[in-house]
Amino acid sequence: MKSGKSHKTLSKQEYYEMIESPDMLDYGVYLNCDKLLACQKPLNGLATNDELQFQIVHQVEELWMKLIAFTLVDIMQYMEQKQSHRVITLFKRVHRLQQMMTDQLAILETMSPKEYQQIRLQLGNGSGQESPGFRTLLKMPQDLWTHFVNAYLDGGSISIDSIYDEDYSHDEKYAVAEALIEFDELFQLFRWRHLFLIHRSIGLGSDSLKGRPVDLLQSGASKRFFPALWEIRSKMTNRWGSEYGKVRPSISKGH
Ligand code: HEM
């Protein structure tokens, strides 16, 4: 490192040019870095410096949703072919992506509520409910379920009960069912985490840019894509519980 005296530091503008228009070597060409880095507002035109992270986090989330949707299409095809190892490996990828999407929301909590109000002025009446990736993902669970029923439940003649309790053998049907419920759980966890982000930034008592009460999002977050996979758990608890009644004898007597 040169001593500070003779070293000329780059100006803010020089850094901005380097960030926005990098040299395009093979790596940059293959990854379309020039186009990618032009997808955000020019650095000199941001409403506030926090707007860049606001745009990037949303854009990155759209990319992850693109990858999730693409992977789910493959999963459906592998379900059809009953290639269960493929189904499970690809679901693992989807689950990790979902987890990452949820974790990334925390980045936006480094933005102050005031800074967000300045950004919000830029959004027109756009809302996350118009997210192309999210809208695609919301359409997929129904098809996933149909593929699961056709491939693993013999079109419906095998029951969820038999997989989880009556004939429980921890087989591929069970493993794929668990991958489905994990997808469902992680999807709803994203929605709950996003509610906390809203609570931190604009508050839950406010209206969205569409004029709807933000609180309505709570009902979406309580939805389940695959209710049968959730219901089997309480059915089993009630069934097993009916053998010992509502309350079991204490096991601490005599201690
Ligand atoms: C400070 C940051 C954020 C705020 C204040 C915020 C606020 C909101 C609000 C108010 C809604 C309800 C819209 C309506 O009823 O029309 C909404 C929905 C939504 N937002 Fe955000 N959001 C933020 C960040 C994000 C990020 C980073 C994503 C990334 C994907 C996202 C995705 C969504 C989605 C998918 C919905 C629809 C949710 C559903 O239908 O359950 N939001 N957001």
Question: Summarize this, please?
Answer:
With 255 residues, the chain is an all-alpha fold.
Written overview of the protein:
The protein is an all-alpha fold. The protein folds into 2 domains: 12-45, no CATH class; 48-242, Methane Monooxygenase Hydroxylase, Chain G, domain 1, CATH 1.20.58.480. It contains 11 helices and no strands. It has helices at residues 12-20, 26-30, 33-37, 50-80, 84-104, 113-120, 132-152, 160-166, 172-201, 217-221, 227-244. Protoporphyrin IX containing FE (HEM) binds next to helix 4, helix 9 and helix 10.
Q: How many separate domains?
A: 2
Q: SSE string, helix = H, strand = E?
A: HHHHHHHHHHH
Number of E-state strands: 0
Helical run tally: 11
Can you tell me the CATH topology of the largest domain? Answer: Methane Monooxygenase Hydroxylase, Chain G, domain 1
What percentage of the residues does DSSP assign to strands (E)? under 5%
Termini separation (Å)? 71 Å
Ligand catalogue:
protoporphyrin IX containing FE
CATH architecture of the largest domain: Up-down Bundle
User: What shape does the CA trace take?
Assistant: elongated
List keywords for this structure.
255 residues, elongated, 63% helix, Methane Monooxygenase Hydroxylase, Chain G, domain 1, single chain, 11 helices
Secondary structure topology:
Elements: H1 12-20, H2 26-30, H3 33-37, H4 50-80, H5 84-104, H6 113-120, H7 132-152, H8 160-166, H9 172-201, H10 217-221, H11 227-244
Helix pairs in contact: 4-5, 4-7, 5-9, 7-9, 8-11
